[in-house]
Amino acid sequence: MAAMRSAYDLRHVEIEGCGSRLPCYVALGDRIPVRLDFYAEQCESEMCPIRTDALSTITSIMSVPSRMALNQRGYLTWRVYNEDGRQVLCYYVMVQTQTYIQKTLRTFLEQLDSIQDTSMAFTRSSFENLKDNVQLSPCNRPPCRLKRGSKQFITITFTPDSDLPDLKNQVTALLAGIPFPFIGVDGVSICDKLENEKGEKVSCPLKAGTKYVYKDSFPVHSFYPTVEAKVHWALNNEDKNVICFEVPIKIK
């Protein structure tokens, strides 16, 4: 946060929910309390409540418009005028828009960030030869380091033991025993991203005993906090796991 063109001596700005790190994440439709601490110049009005010899405080509400683009960054400028229409306080701060779901998830993960167990160094799987059948890129060794604002690529080779009309992803990050879905990939059908052993495009239904290769990518959203977690990845048909595995990750 920074002050600019303020006639008064602006000392401190506090936006509820926004710490020292930028950008400040705001949810569409939010009403956010803001506090300004400052020293004022001489006030000649008899109705003026501001003293010049002490630190003064103004508390107000910042309304975030509900019709804005999501996950966009920009600068919010706040101006305060006196009764004569003169600009006496002005500051700006970088913000990024998000939904309430994103806000809730971010707040929860940030609270867990300081208590995460960093001892995870294992991977579990429901099928053999995990390293041969699952490739994550870029990822050389666990924990897989996921960079915010980038994409992660995955290839899964599998052979179903029964005919399947459809197959969907179930991808969650396990934090403190609570699963959080990966936005944009969890619950999505993989039928349009399948190949056979020859690299030819195929689709559902899947045949028992036939080898398939699933190739996909998923976004590591910029609103994800830096945190270590364990990701559970499964391919499901009617709530039944066809294959599943777990891998530790570190979002940075």
What can be said about this structure in brief?
Belongs to the NPC2 family. One of its GO terms (biological process) is sterol transport. The protein is about 5% helix and about 45% strand.
Could you characterize what this model shows?
It is a single chain. This protein is mostly beta strands and 252 residues long. Helix content is 7%, strand content 46%. The protein is built from two helices and 18 strands. It has helices at 100-112, 130-133; strands at 2-3, 9-15, 24-27, 31-39, 56-63, 73-81, 87-98, 124-125, 134-137, 144-146, 150-158, 168-175, 178-181, 194-195, 201-202, 212-220, 227-237, 240-251. Strands 8, 10, 12, 13, 17 and 18 form a six-stranded mixed beta sheet that branches. The chain has a five-stranded antiparallel beta sheet with strand order 9-11-16-14-15. Strand 14 (194-195) and strand 15 form a beta hairpin. The longest helix is centred in the middle third of the chain and has 13 residues, at 100-112. The protein is elongated and about 80 Å long.
